[in-house]
Amino acid sequence: MLLIKVGGGKDINWDGVCRDIAELWLSEPVILVHGASVLRDELAARLSIPVRKVISPSGVTSVYTDREAIEVFLMAYAGLANKRIVALLLSQGVKAVGLCGVDGKLWEAKAKKEILVRESGKTKLLKDNLTGRVERVNAELLRLLLEHRYLPVVCAPAVSFDNEIVNTDNDTAAAVMAGEMGVRKMVYLFEAPGLLRDPDDQGSVIRRIGKYEIEAFLPFARERMKKKILGVKRAVEAGVEAVFFGDGRTQNPVKNALAGQGTVIG
Amino acid sequence: MLLIKVGGGKDINWDGVCRDIAELWLSEPVILVHGASVLRDELAARLSIPVRKVISPSGVTSVYTDREAIEVFLMAYAGLANKRIVALLLSQGVKAVGLCGVDGKLWEAKAKKEILVRESGKTKLLKDNLTGRVERVNAELLRLLLEHRYLPVVCAPAVSFDNEIVNTDNDTAAAVMAGEMGVRKMVYLFEAPGLLRDPDDQGSVIRRIGKYEIEAFLPFARERMKKKILGVKRAVEAGVEAVFFGDGRTQNPVKNALAGQGTVIG
Description:
The structure is a homodimer of 266-residue chains. Helices cover 33% and strands 28% of the residues of chain A. The first copy, chain A, has 266 residues and is α/β, with parallel strands linked by helices. At the A-B interface, helix 3, strand 5 and helix 4 of A face helix 3, strand 5 and helix 4 of B.
């Protein structure tokens, strides 16, 4: 089983991604997880709802999420992005079904109402944060769909153990899902040719990372990439054998990544 | 099997609807279809995207839908409203799964790119309209979910036979779905105590309409209610035995409707 996670950047070649998936889908089950961060930010700006990005004491960037932010999230991720991708896959002959983490408790998260953040050099406690970390996945629902040849197209938000809609880290969720579903291969697509030794040099792609040296590469990762590396580490710990980082902007983003044209981990 | 269709008004008592559904769900399969017109209109206003309402030569009101309007539709219906309802049902112990008509081609529609409308007393032809009439329903997907005790929470938009996302009339879609699924009872909830003889008199509820006299009651219906009546006619022709119109604003909207407190048709 193949899990493909595509970032929410604006230059992702979604036609190419969906064409590749349609081809792979003929020979193996696929789960697609997608982001929509750029759509979310654009929508928040149009609605004059500020996106408040916060940085944890360990340096990981995330979004502080109040009720309004969750609404924007639902609209951009579960509404606009998810259904557009489903329609693209349908037009490639793949019966796709879009779900967010709330549907059938697909992604159950432990709520983190209070979070520590670094702001202007100080560590602060933020309350009433509607985020959570995915701890449980409804593998039964995913299997049900896959067994009947429906391709699950999955996105945040998740649902807390108290049935509140919560924002969540996609990369952690994907890793937990990979573990529960017995996924062997994962593809991560984003707007870079792979993990870069020097983030300003597109030619400095790190070609290969062994499964026991993932953490050693954290210093090369900036902001959102840090989360991906942590997600990959978790996924590998959960049984994933190979993770392929690839460029989502190319003609054949998934196939290129699987051919090792980006960074191969594992 | 029970199909419940809830309108998109702002005063619908969703807590009550979901509580009622949780109780009924213990003894019979339920499909929930919902609108989100007020959310859609609010969002369109906030995004400064005008909602262009048009009236057909036969007097039925609908929304002219271009690409921007479809985006607002996806955000309000498939994003915000759908997932909020799913979360409410989850908190009532019902494993709900939210789908729009695009997912797995749940609602396949024949596109109507050109529509005739009445505007300032004249009949005009509008082009590039992204709407369609649902003709085919993916009953297999609905059955799959229901058999595994997942309650489908369904909304527009639909998908055209060319895999374009299209706005559609919920009431027609619900009727087609009822026919395909062998639904025997339907509940329609909205912001009125039933079909009114005099729309300005909440006490003038028509209590009973026979299955062969539905059309005779069309003159009592205004705007959106006309569509419901036409939808009901179609549903009854497709095999539905009884349709219950009820007030979505009460404490127990579904149970009250089933108890005949609104208008009973069939």
